[in-house]
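Regression test case RT-17, inverse folding.

Input:
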């Protein structure tokens, strides 16, 4: 549905905002574009939506080249920019009718607007001035305008910034539901957001893609760096020595944390080896109860930091 090929963008000077970025997104996928501030996310969004030209490379939406055929391509895209383009002095209905005309939409108008309002659950505020709505509702109106014309692709730029926790959950649910009927790109710097909403995650840093993985697979990117935190009851020195003797264990670090009468240990396995069975066996042999075990550093936040570190190191070479 979306093909991005060797995209390069320079804003003048020598710095690359995007440096040879390529990816594809299939129909009905929900993909997260994740990266720290300044990574190039907005630049990429603005090129995809036809608001910005490229230095080189091309973008196809449903096979249509965004630069060669911007009007045709734009019809397939609904866009919610970080600042939703809503008019505070219009009622919700007035505003959505306005967007409907602007997009030259052909569906039966009132039915289409009713469908869109139902999809984002704003029918109950349809006659209210946008100015008087809460930020969460205003954001839904922003999503409604993106849905008008039933575009195949919907692009969200930081859709939950400034919302309260309840509103954030509501908007994320809404985006997840849209993924059933649309191809969705969600640009954000919030890891929990892509984790809860997206099937695939593209991580971008300094204008380059540093990861493009299924959300489930991303944890495996760092599998060669397997750390576990164990809480084990028993003699500390004996346990430390015992764990160090387990095949595949490369280091054991007693920690200052305790869980009741158990001390905690950070156990690191060598690349590609899962040391948990060996640790279980040695503890069972010695009668040391394992009270808890947890993977360390396999959450998205840690993965992200490692990936960014890795790409920074590679850039520095
Ligand atoms: P993000 O959305 O991930 O925060 P941006 O796409 O806004 O990143 O920015 C990528 C890089 O391009 C940054 O280094 C930023 O300073 C630069 N940049 C963005 N917009 C402009 C512009 N209009 N003129 C010059 N440089 C820009």
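Golden output:
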């Amino acid at each position: 549905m979306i093909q991005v090929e060797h995209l390069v963008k320079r804003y003048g000077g020598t710095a690359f905002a995007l440096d040879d970025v390529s990816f594809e997104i299939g129909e009905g996928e929900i993909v997260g574009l994740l990266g720290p501030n300044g990574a190039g996310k907005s630049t990429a969004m603005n090129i995809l939506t036809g608001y910005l030209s490229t230095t080189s490379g091309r973008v196809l939406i449903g096979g249509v080249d965004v630069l060669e055929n911007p009007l045709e391509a734009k019809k397939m895209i609904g866009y919610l920019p970080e600042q939703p383009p809503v008019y505070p002095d219009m009622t919700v209905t007035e505003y959505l009718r306005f967007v409907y005309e602007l997009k030259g939409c052909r569906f039966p108008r009132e039915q289409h607007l009713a469908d869109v309002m139902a999809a984002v659950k704003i029918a109950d505020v349809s006659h209210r001035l946008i100015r008087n709505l809460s930020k969460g509702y205003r954001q839904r109106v922003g999503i409604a305008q993106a849905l008008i014309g039933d575009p195949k692709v919907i692009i969200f730029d930081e859709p939950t910034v400034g919302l309260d926790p309840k509103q954030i959950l509501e908007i994320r649910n809404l985006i997840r539901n849209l993924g059933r009927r649309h191809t969705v790109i969600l640009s954000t710097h919030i890891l929990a957001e892509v984790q809860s909403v997206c099937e695939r995650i593209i991580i971008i840093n300094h204008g380059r893609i540093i990861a493009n993985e299924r959300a489930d697979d991303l944890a495996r990117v760092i599998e060669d760096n397997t750390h576990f935190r164990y809480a084990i009851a028993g003699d500390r020195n004996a346990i430390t020595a015992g764990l160090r003797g387990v095949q595949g264990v490369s280091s054991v670090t007693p920690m200052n944390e305790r869980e009741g009468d158990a001390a905690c240990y950070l156990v690191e396995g060598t690349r590609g080896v899962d040391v948990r069975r060996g640790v279980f066996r040695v503890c069972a042999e010695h009668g040391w109860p394992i009270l808890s075990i947890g993977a360390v550093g396999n959450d998205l936040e840690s993965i992200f930091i490692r990936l960014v570190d890795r790409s920074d190191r590679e850039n520095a070479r």
